[in-house]
């Protein structure tokens, strides 16, 4: 293909400069060599495919024409020739098509490489392979760009690391730049391209590079002479992914703005390749998570259907997640697997969780610092348990998924256990009421033996009431937990225990009445601990000890009366029926009735003088001893006598009348007990 008008050039040279024979050479800056183009009237045989890196520089018999982008055309004449400026300019334009041909050919190569890069991106998802091909394309289209490296930001270590390189030694892989360190770190930080047209300026810009990185760069250096250093940011959707760095060989032509644009285009291909690889990795990871989720679901479903219980599920979760997972049943205060170290008590876990529903991290300083993920497990509105995962945060998505699925199945197991407990409570509740009715005592006795209680022994009933619960689900959970607490504290005692609404009922079988003292102290301890940790009021009434099934209704009724007495006084705690004393006579009267009786006595005194009420109460407390009463009130004995006489007049009674004295004593007792 003819690149220029050969006949026109030949005619012009012959006419204006008497030149008949010459050779035409083109210097290609990308290839850094001279290419033989043509010869007019051959004076020396030259093959059409000759390439030379240098040509003899003799000004007498040659003409050099400079074109843009460091392209040059050289005419070598057979004899000496003198060419003036006007002739030179005309020859320049006559040969310009040769320059245009080669530049267009270079552009075609650049376009082919860009298209090849796009094809590679769509044809492969191997990021390392793609980056290597893109760096090869950089070398093919950018003059002298035989040395290059791509630096990818790694958020896990907050460093720029060398993801791919060309022309460097392997030590470059160990270099890790901080953001803002060296030219690469600065380009990543501000997103601005940088071009240095001397190695000295590039070195000056690298000031601040860490000593370790500088030593690694020196070991990795290719030892070639560098004409220019270029760094451009690699962006995707305004997010900087990394930096492309290039060293240009010293023999290559100077980089043009077009070259910089090409570098940016190739950097964009790197960004797309990274994003595609990231998307592929993410899709692959999500697919693996879904596959694993199905495996986890199948495994846990199998355990649940086989009724293996929470222990088996906790063991399976430990197989899936390392280093360890502990399940804590907060209602029954059990840890699974049981051999695991207990880093937190149940009380601590209750405080940590409080009303939280979402997982949270907590740190604990033991021998060393440890971090735990606490995953609350709710059954309805009740936090019935939690998973404790030991490990460095944050958990990966797969681990989160396993914990989440495990929490769901453990919640189902706890709900199942709760339902079983409800059925058991119903069974014991019905049996207990049959005992109260005492029909077929022989059959009831045998049933008691099957339930682990000998009802021919000494028996005593205890009734506990939990107050101030609006949420029935929370109440049921607390009752279940309280029943479990009793079973744990009274393991050696033969008993029946069940919960019903806000009450827990116990029937104890004792070998000796002396055992009741231990029972009472145990209940006082349980109630004190619960009232402090759970912040609720508990009332416990204990009946008297009797023997045999016929007496169960008696001790039950007494426990109810003792409980009612505590409630009427609004005093939480434990009381035995035998401790109520004279108040037993008034249990059938409401607190309102008793206070009304008290007011009938003290109201007239209120209306006259406040000190008279205090005097009367103190007088009765001191067993009507004038001396003790006067001393207690810090008044003269005569003043006391005057007050007593005044009280008798106001109340229209005499302290010499036994019936009046009893009336006053009861009023004082009720005032102290019920107000």
From TrEMBL:
Where the record annotates domain GAF, the positions are 126-284
Taxonomically, the superkingdom here is Bacteria
**Gene3D superfamilies in alphabetical order:** 3.30.450.40, PucR C-terminal helix-turn-helix domain (1.10.10.2840)
What protein family does this chain belong to?
Answer: Belongs to the CdaR family.
Q: Which PANTHER family match?
A: CARBOHYDRATE DIACID REGULATOR, DNA-BINDING TRANSCRIPTIONAL ACTIVATOR ADER
Name the UniProt record assigns to this protein: Sugar diacid utilization regulator
The taxonomy runs: Bacteria, Bacillati, Bacillota, Bacilli, Bacillales
